[in-house]
Structures are given as structure tokens and as C-alpha cells.
TrEMBL record:
PANTHER family: 1-DEOXY-D-XYLULOSE 5-PHOSPHATE REDUCTOISOMERASE (PTHR30525), 1-DEOXY-D-XYLULOSE 5-PHOSPHATE REDUCTOISOMERASE, CHLOROPLASTIC (PTHR30525:SF0). This is 1-deoxy-D-xylulose 5-phosphate reductoisomerase. One of its GO terms (molecular function) is 1-deoxy-D-xylulose-5-phosphate reductoisomerase activity. NADPH binds at T15, G16, S17, I18, R47, N48, N161, E163, G241. Pathway: Isoprenoid biosynthesis; isopentenyl diphosphate biosynthesis via DXP pathway; isopentenyl diphosphate from 1-deoxy-D-xylulose 5-phosphate: step 1/6. It is an enzyme of class 1 (oxidoreductase). Its EC number is 1.1.1.267.
């Protein structure tokens, strides 16, 4: 096709923490990549009209966006329509029901026909012929259908949405094998493991996931029981969306990452270990059969793993800061406390079981996190609630996608019931 030196990227969840970091990476690649151009072809925000418009306006003012290296500099400052994304999606239909929102979209130079509403529009974007790469950056199970659609369409998928693999890792891997696409991790731990494996050309014996320990790494159980949403949202090393920030505080994030690693790298749960590394510089490690352990290090900045998922196998300059070893620094590793962080054992258990376990635990956790953020349950109820809901369900070893979605709905309802939060 024409203009193939421009890579069309669909970023779903563009207004979020990963989404905005991805836009920054794309703009930087356009300035620095001599071999190709990058275009944000499609973008989505759930109901955040202002957030998405701000991104559209930034790109519309960027002369390098959407042009190939050959075009660049030839027509500087020309008002190229390729700078504006071809497709904008608001997955929440209510978001843009006000006439003022539509007016604002019009003023930003957007053609109304290019703006789509509702969750189905995410799926349409994910499988659109024009899309070369899908960045799956929606939070939670809401990202599942679009990610699966992109895998089915054989796209390159840069996966931030770990919940997709937690809910349906087995099915996604089967679809990937059938359709010949690629699933590249954005999650920093999995990117680190991917980089170590790719550079050693060997099968791993063990994956060692590092965890910062979150805001409650050295907190007592009673302090955790009394934690407010504000305490739990204050992550020491990473700036992230609210759901993953709470997951980091309970260490359910590491549990989800154990499950993600199990499917992504086709290892068994007993080949995975977790170690606490408070500085978040070593993003994870891989042990090989000869006992050699490789690690990947970089400052805690998601733009590095996002960019690698886009440009792999190429490495290019990245806007993330560099490590400075001229300054004294300390990198420490300590064992994880399974007693204060019961999420870890739950993660290993779900990774071992497969089947319907991931969908149930994920749904229960999503609802429990919302209830905690709304101050309806205590912090130390989140993980026990997820376990309780898991234990209430009848395990099935090889569910279909529609069965998993059914169980997701059931587990959400069950979580509200067992915490006394039915509206
Ligand atoms: P965020 O809350 O900052 O952004 C979430 C995005 O999803 C927003 O664009 C929002 O509009 C959209 N969204 C929310 N609910 C939706 C729904 N029901 N339907 C469609 N879209 C919806 O979240 P984030 O921190 O960017 O995380 C996104 C994903 O990336 C998560 O799965 C998270 O686990 C993963 N991740 C994030 C980080 C990080 O540093 N933030 C690191 C590793 C992995
Ligand atoms: Mg991570």
C-alpha cells in the first residue's frame, strides 16, 4: 500500500496514563526515527472529551505527526489532515450527548463521521485494515474485546491491558497462534523478561518478577487496615491510573502479573518468583538453565517499554530519562512478605489453575477496588473478597470467551453481594 513508511497506530485508552505516554513516544519517534513515520490513526477516551481533544490538538500542531521521513521537511507547516486521527472513539455513549461536546469536536477540525460511540466502536478500530499496531491501554476487563479482536485480525498488539491475559490468557494465546499476529508486552516487568529472553535466544528456567512493594511495603497490618484511598494511591516510584495504583498497594498488581507472565511466556506457575525491589530500576530477571540470570534496567518510566513494543526489534532513542551511575545508588532486593500481601499466593494459585479462575478473581478485584475507592470497604478487605468470590465459583478448566464474560458478570454481582453493597 501507499505511504507504508507511515505506521498507523491505534491507541485505545489514549487519555490514560499509558495512553498519554504512548502519544509522547509517537511524537518523539517522528522527530528521531529516520526510517519510518508514525501516526496516531485512532484514539479513544471513555468519556473524557476534553482529555482526548487536548491530545488531538497537540498532534494537529505537530508538523511531524503522520508524515513519512521523506515528506518531513518538504512541506513544513502545511495543514496536513494526517496529523488529526482518522477515528476517535468515546466508548461511553453518554459522554458526548451534550451538543457542546459535539461543537468542540467540530472546532478541533474533526469530521463528525470519524467520531464513533459505544464499546463496539473499539472493536471496529482494533480490526480496521488501516491499523498496523494496536496499543491496548484501556484499564480492566473493558479492554478485553478490542484486544482479542486485534489478535484475531493478526495485528501487532502492544499490550498494557494485563487484565486481558488474566481473564482469557489461554484463549488469547490460541488465537495468536492461529492468526499470526504478535503480542508484545508493555508492562515493564514483562518487557524486561521479553528483552532478556530475546537477547539470549534460550528458553528461560525461571522468571523473577520484581515488585516495588508499593506504598505499604513496610506498613503493619493494622496500618493497612486503616489505609485511606489517598494513602493507597500514593505510589512511591510510579505515576499510574487509580486502579493499577490500588492494585500495586495490595500487590494484586503483582498477582495479575504472575498470571500475565504465565500466559505470555508459556511457563508454569512454579517457574515464576517475586522479589521486592523498592527502587524500580531492575524491571525483572530471567534465569537460564546454566544458572545465569539476566536483568533489564532503566529508570521507572513507561515510555521505554511502550516504545520497545512499538519498534521491536529495533531500538531507538527514547524520551525517558537515563540511569546515571556516576551518582551513588543502591539497588536492593528482599523477599516478598506473603503474610501481609495475601494477593501473591492468590496470584500463584490462579496461574496454576487457569480455566475460569482468572476471570473471576479479576472481576471481583475490579469491583472491590471501586468499592474501596468509594470508601465502601476497607483496604484489607479487597484481596480476601477476591479470594472468597473465587472460592464461591464452580471451576471450569476450558471455558469459551462468552462463558468467561458471563462469569465476569456473575463475579461482579457476587462481590457486591458478599460485601453488602447491592444497590
Ligand atoms: P488510566 O486509568 O490512567 O487510563 C485508562 C484508560 O482507559 C483511559 O483512557 C480511560 O478513558 C479508558 N477507560 C476507562 N474505563 C473504560 C471503559 N469502561 N471502556 C473503555 N475505556 C475505558 O489507566 P492506566 O494506568 O493507563 O492503565 C491502563 C492499563 O495499562 C491497565 O490495564 C494497567 O494495568 C496497565 N498498565 C499501566 C501501567 C502504568 O504505568 N500506568 C503500567 C503497566 C501496565
Ligand atoms: Mg508492571
Amino acid at each position: 500500500p501507499q505511504n507504508r513508511s507511515v505506521t498507523n497506530v491505534a491507541v485505545l485508552g489514549t487519555t490514560g496514563s499509558i495512553g498519554t505516554a504512548t502519544v509522547d513516544v509517537l511524537q518523539n519517534l517522528n522527530r528521531l526515527d529516520p526510517q519510518s513515520g508514525w501516526r496516531l490513526w485512532a484514539a479513544s477516551g471513555h468519556r473524557n472529551v476534553d482529555g482526548l481533544l487536548e491530545i488531538v490538538e497537540t498532534l494537529a500542531a505537530d508538523p511531524d505527526h503522520g508524515s513519512s521521513p521523506i515528506d518531513r521537511g518538504v512541506t513544513p507547516g502545511c495543514n496536513d489532515s494526517r496529523r488529526i486521527p482518522e477515528r476517535l472513539v468515546f466508548s461511553d455513549r453518554q459522554a458526548v450527548s451534550e451538543p457542546s461536546a459535539l461543537d468542540r469536536l467540530g472546532r478541533a477540525g474533526l469530521d463528525r463521521s470519524n467520531v464513533r460511540f459505544g464499546p463496539d466502536a473499539l472493536v471496529d478500530v482494533a480490526r480496521a485494515d488501516e491499523v498496523d499496531v494496536l496499543v491496548a491501554a484501556i484499564v480492566g476487563r473493558a479492554g478485553l474485546e478490542s484486544t482479542v479482536a486485534a489478535v484475531e485480525a493478526g495485528k501487532r498488539v502492544a499490550l498494557a491491558n494485563k487484565e486481558t491475559l488474566v481473564v482469557a490468557g489461554d484463549l488469547v494465546q490460541k488465537k495468536l497462534a492461529q492468526n499470526g499476529g504478535a503480542l508484545l508486552p508493555v508492562d515493564s516487568e514483562h518487557s524486561a523478561i521479553f528483552q532478556c529472553i530475546a537477547s539470549s535466544h534460550a528458553k528461560p528456567r525461571k522468571l523473577i518478577l520484581t515488585a516495588s512493594g508499593g506504598p505499604f511495603r513496610s506498613a503493619s497490618k493494622s496500618a493497612m487496615a486503616a489505609a485511606t484511598p489517598k494513602d493507597a494511591l500514593a505510589h512511591p516510584t510510579w505515576q499510574m491510573g487509580p486502579k493499577i495504583s490500588i492494585d500495586s498497594a495490595t500487590m494484586m498488581n503483582k498477582a495479575l502479573e504472575i498470571i500475565e507472565a504465565r500466559w505470555l511466556f508459556d511457563v508454569s506457575s512454579d517457574q515464576i518468583e517475586v522479589v521486592i525491589h523498592p527502587q524500580s530500576i531492575i524491571h525483572s530477571m530471567v534465569e537460564f538453565v546454566d544458572g545465569s540470570v539476566l536483568s533489564q534496567m532503566s529508570p521507572p518510566d513507561m515510555r521505554m517499554p511502550i516504545q520497545y513494543a512499538l519498534t521491536y526489534p529495533r531500538r531507538l532513542p527514547c524520551p525517558a530519562p537515563e540511569l546515571d551511575f556516576r551518582q551513588p545508588s543502591e539497588l536492593t532486593l528482599e523477599p516478598a512478605d506473603l503474610d501481609r500481601f495475601p494477593a501473591l499466593a492468590l496470584g500463584f494459585e490462579v496461574a496454576r489453575c487457569g480455566g475460569t479462575a482468572g476471570a473471576v478473581v479479576n472481576a471481583a478485584n475490579e469491583v472491590a477496588v471501586e468499592l474501596f475507592l468509594d470508601e465502601k470497604i476497607r483496604f484489607d478487605q479487597i484481596v480476601p473478597t477476591a479470594r472468597k468470590v473465587l472460592e464461591c465459583h464452580t471451576f471450569e478448566p476450558s471455558p469459551t470467551l462468552s462463558r468467561l464474560l458471563e462469569l465476569d458478570r456473575w463475579a461482579r454481582q457476587e462481590t457486591r453481594l458478599c460485601t453488602g453493597n447491592v444497590d
